[in-house]
Amino acid sequence: MKRELEILWQDPLLALLVAAITVSLLIFVVYPLIAVFIRGFQTQDGQFTLENYRRFATFRYLQNALRNSLMVGLATGAVGVFLGYLAAFTLTRTDVPGKQLLHILLILPIISPPFVSAIAILLLFGFNGLITQKILGLQGFNIYGFKGVFLSQVFTFAPVGYLTLRGVLESLNPTLEDAAMNVGASRWQTFRRVTFPLSLPGIASAFLVIFIESLADFGNPLVLAGSRFPMLAPQAYLEITGSFNLPLGAALAVVLLIPSLTAFVIQRYYLQKRQYTTVTGKPTLSASKIVSPGARVALYAVLTGFALLILLFYGTILVGAFTAVWGHDNTLTLDHFRYAFSVGFDTIKDTLIVAILSTPISGFLGMLIAFMVVRLSFPGKGAVEFMSILNFAVPGTVVGIGYILAFNRPPLLLVGTLAVLVLNFVFRYVPVGIQSGIAVLRQIDPSIEEAARNLGADGITTFRKVTLPLIAPAFFSGLVFAFVRAMTAISAAIFLVSAQWNLLTVQILNQVGSGRLGVAAAFSVILVAIVIVAVGVISRLVPRQVARIEIMRAQEG
Amino acid sequence: MAELRLVDLVKEFPSFDSPAGKVVAVDHVNLAVERGELVTLLGPSGCGKTTLLRMIAGFEDPTSGDIYLGDRRINDLAPNKRDAAMVFQSYAIFPHLNVFENVAFGLRLQSLTEAQVQERVNRVLELVGLTELARRSPDQLSGGQQQRVALARAIVMEPRLLLFDEPLSNLDAKLREQMRIEIRQLQQRLGITSVYVTHDQAEAMSISDRIVVMNHGRIEQVGPPLELYARPRNRFVAAFIGDVNFLSGEVVAPGRVRVLTETFPVTDMPDSLRPGQAVTLTLRPESVELLDDPRAPQSHFPGEVSRVTFLGGMVEYEVRTQGLGSLVVHASNPILRGVHRRGDAVGLHIPPAALHALP
Fold it and tell me: CB distance B79–A194 less than 8 Å?
C-alpha cells in the first residue's frame, strides 16, 4: 500500500484527483445514506428510539406495504424477465422481419418518464377508460392496486430485461449451439442443455435488476397503487410530506433499502462472476438454426403483441394530449398544451437547465472513475468502486430522503437550490457511465497508455489525449443515459424540488394527482419529444473518429 | 462408391453491396472423398472453404446441388441427424460443463447406459491424453488442451465423417506442428473419413491424402500434395502452395522451350502447346542450383545476389539476372557450403526436370 501511494504521489495532479473524487463520493453517496439510517432510529426531536421499527409489528398497513412491494417486485421480475428473454432470443436468434423497428419500440419505455405507462393505463383502463368502459362496457372496474402497478411495471421494466438479456445472448457464441446440434442434439435439446443453462446467470441477473428497479419505482405505485394497496416507496414519501414524520419515513426507506441492497450484492458479487462469455473466433455467417419455423412464428407473435401494446400506450398518450375531456368530450384541442406551457414554461426551462448541467459532469466523472478503477492502483480502490456504483441499488426515495437530511444545514445548506438537484442527478446516474467505461477500458490494451507515458505524457494528459478518445463510445452512451434519466427521474427529485426549481416529472405527477390527465399527457408528450431530440443531438455529436474505432472493432471481431 | 460426394454444389448469400444482389460463396463444386481419406480444403480467406464445410455439416443450406453421404442424399437432413462430427475453429467447448461432460454431451443424447457412456468417454480421453483432466472446467484448460477436448468430443461419436474447421489456427507455431501430427495419426488409426479446412499450405501438405485448392468459390485443382506442388495447373495454385518463380518462354518444338537464349527440354508439357506459342514455366526455388562461378560451363544464366536471408537450415537468395528479372533461390546446408554476400556474382543452373509448363 505504501508503494502504491508513492507511485501515485509521483503524479500529484492525479493523486489530488483521486482524493477529490473519493471525498465527493463519501459526501454525496455515503453520507446521505448514513443520515437516513440514523434518522430512522430517532424521535422527531432527535432522541434515540426503536419506535419507528416497532411500528411494523403493530401497524398492518406498514406490513402490507412491505409485502406488497416485494410481491410486485417478484412478479414484475418474473414476467419482465420472461418477456425480455423471449424478445432478446427472438431478435438475436431468428431473422424475423422488422427487427430494427421492434428493437426501437422495445427500448422506447426506457427513455420515457416511468409513469407514462401509468397515465396510459388510466386512460385505457381507468374509470373513464377507453377499453374498460367504452369497449367492454364495464362499470366500476377498478384498475388500482396490484394489477395496475404490475401491468405498468411490466411495461416499464420488461425492456430493461430485454436489453440486459440481449447482451447476454449476443455474447454467447452461436457456434456452441452448432456444436451441440453437430453431435446429435435436437433444437429443443440444444436450447435446454446449452443455450438456456448458459444464459441462466444472465437471467438471474436480469431478474434481480428488475426486482431492484421495481422496488425503487415511485411514479407507477403513486399513481396506480391506490389507498388500499400501500407500497413502501410512496408510503415513505407520504409519511414525510403528508404526516411530516421524517423519522418514520427514514425508517421505511431503510426497510426498502435492505432487499434492494441484498439483491444488488447477489447480482454483483455472485452472479456476475458466473456469467459465461464465450465470444471467440469469427461470428457465424447466417441466422442460427436453433429455432424451428413453428417456434419462430410463435415467438414473433408474442413479441409483436408486446410491441403493439407499447405502441398502443404511446398512441393513447398522444391522443389523450389532444383530446378535450377523455371519455366525455372527444373533440381535438390544443388547450392542454396551451395550459401546459402557461403554467409549466418555467418548469420546462428548469428541467432543461438541470439536465444540461448534470449530463456532462456525470459523463466526465463516469469516465474518470472508470479510468481510476481500471488503470490506477491506490489504497481503498475497491471501496471507491463500490461507492461509485452503490447508487445503482439504492432506491431514489432513499437518496431523496438522505439528501434532505444531509444537506439542510450549513456548511452544506443545499436543499432548495439548483445545486442539490444537479448533484443528486450526477451521483445517482454516474454508475452506468462508470460501468460502460470500465467495460470498454478493460478491452483496451494498457500498452497503448504505456506508450503515451513512455513518450512523456503525464497521467492527466494520457487520460485526456489517449484514453478519453478511445472510450468515447462509452462516454457518449453514458451521456445519453445521464440526460435521459435527468429528464425523466422522479423518485429522489420529488423530495428536492422547490418553488424556485421545479421539474417536469413532478409537474406531470401533480397534474395526475389533480385529475388533469390531458395536461399530464401533454407534458409527457413534451418531455418525450425533448428526450428524443436530445438523444438525436448527442448521437450527432459523436465524433467521426469514434465511428471509425467502432468500425475497427467490428472488423477485428 | 465414394463416402462423401458433392455434386454441383452452389451457395449464394444475399448482398446489398454487390451489383448482382448476391455473392456466390461456393460455385459449382464437385468432389468425391473416399472412405478413410483425409481431404483438405485449402484456400485464402473468403474462398468458400468454410461455407462448403458448413454445408456438409448442415449449418448452411445449399442454394443448389446435392450432398451425398454414402448413397444417401443428406441435403435436407437436420444438422443433428447427420453423422458428421465437427471440430470447430473456436473449439466451441461448452463453458458450463467439465471436460468429461463436454465429451459425453452427444452420447448422453442417445439411449446409452451410464456404463457405456463412461467407457466410451474414458477411452477417447485416454486416446487424446486428457484422462487426468476429465473433471477440469474449460476455463482451466490451455489452448492445446481445449483443442483436444474439441477433438475428443467429435471422435467419441464414432462419426462416419469428421469435419475440421481450421482447428489449429488459434495455437502457437510449435503446438500447431505437434497437433497436426497427432490429428493425422489419430485419423489414420481410426480410419475416419475426414474433411479438413485450412488456409495454411504447410499444414495442408503435411496431413492430407489429397488437397482441394479453392479460390473465389471454385475448385482450382485437386490432387495429392506432391502432385500439386510439382505440377500445379495454374499460376494461383503454383503461387499458393510453396514459393515459386515464373519464367516466360517460347515453345520451339514439342517438349522443348526456349527461355531467353537457352533451350530446355520440358517433359511435363501439355500437348495443346504448339511451336511458337508463349508459355509460362514454374521453377521452385530449391530446384535451382547456385554456382559460385558465373562462367562455369553448366551455368545457364549469370546473376548478382541482391538479397540474402539466412533461415537456419537453408539460405534464401534473391538473384538479379539479365532478362529473367529476379529469381528466388534456396540453397541448403549453409554450414558446409557457406553463405554468399550481397553483390556476389553467381551462376544459375536449372536442371531440366525442375521446369513445369503451365497449360
Answer: no
Q: What three-state secondary structure class fits B6?
A: strand
Using CA coordinates, name the residue in chain A closest to B167.
Answer: A281
CA distance B66 to B96: 37
Q: Which pTM does this prediction carry?
A: 0.81
Q: Given this chain, do its domains B4-239 and B244-357 carry the same CATH topology? A: no
CA distance A467 to chain B (A): 29
A222 in any annotated domain: no
- DSSP helix, strand, coil percent of chain A (3-state; round to 5): 75, 0, 20
Query: Domain ranges in chain B?
Result: 4-239, 244-357
pLDDT at site A3: 53
CA of B56, closest CA in chain A: separation in Å?
11
Please identify which residue in the block is written with the cell numbers 430493461. Answer: A160
Gap between the Cα atoms of A62 and A57, Å rounded: 8
Angstroms from A279 CA to nearest CA on chain B: 9
Q: Give the closest of A178, A197, A198 to B59, CB-based.
A: A178
Quote the minimal CA–CA distance from B321 to chain A in Å.
42
- How buried is A72 (Cβ within 10 angstroms: 0-12 exposed, 13-18 middle, 19+ buried)? buried
**Which residue on chain A is closest to B110 by alpha carbon?**
A184
Residues of A in contact with B153 (CB under 8 A): 179, 183
The domain defined by B244-357 folds into OB fold (Dihydrolipoamide Acetyltransferase, E2P) (2.40.50)
Q: Which domain holds residue A378?
A: 1-32+334-395+406-557
- Which three three-digit cell numbers place residue A49? 428510539
Q: How far is B82 from chain A (nearest CA, A)?
A: 8
- pLDDT value, residue A550: 43
**What is B4-239's CATH number?**
3.40.50.300
Domain count, chain A: 1
User: Which grid cell sits at A532?
Assistant: 428524443
Per-residue burial over A40-53, b = 16 or more CB atoms within 10 Å of its CB, e = otherwise: bbbeeeeeeeeebb
The C-alpha of B148 sits at a distance from chain A's nearest C-alpha, in angstroms, of: 15
Are A285 and B109 an interchain contact pair (Cβ–Cβ within 8 Å)?
no
Smallest Cβ distance to B96: which of A198, A282, A284? A198
Nearest Cα residue in chain A from B165: A281
Cβ pair B95:A179 closer than 8 A: no
Say what the ipTM of the complex is. Answer: 0.77
Q: Please indicate whether, in this complex, the C-beta atoms of A286 and B109 are within 8 angstroms of each other.
A: no
Candidates B58, B92, B157; nearest CB to A175: B92
Residue A11 lies in a domain: yes
Q: Which residues of B sit within 8 Å Cβ distance of A? A: 13, 51, 54, 57-60, 78-81, 84-86, 88-92, 94-96, 105-106, 109-110, 153-154, 157, 170
Strands (E), A141-195: none
- Written as one letter, the residue type at B267 is T
DSSP class of A283: P
Q: Tens of pLDDT along B55-94?
A: 999 888 899 999 999 999 999 888 888 899 999 888 888 8
Domain assignment present for residue A164? The answer is no
A286 pLDDT exceeds 50?
no
CATH code, domain with A512 = 1.10.3720.10
What's the mean per-residue pLDDT of chain A? 84
Identify residue A119 by its one-letter amino acid code: I
Task: Please report the sign of the dihedral spanned by the C-alpha atoms of residue B189, residue B190, residue B191, residue B194.
Answer: negative
pLDDT reading at A459 higher than 80: no
How far CA A139 is from CA of A101, A172, A426, B3, in Å, comes to: 37, 50, 46, 74
Instruction: Note if the bond before A411 is cis, omega within 30 degrees.
Output: yes
Between CA A533 and CA B312 the distance in angstroms is 66
How far apart are alpha carbons A404 and A125 in whole angstroms? 36
CA dist., res. B149 & res. B133, Å (int): 10
Task: Verify whether the Cβ–Cβ distance A182 to B94 is below 8 Å.
Answer: no
Residue A556 lies in a domain: yes
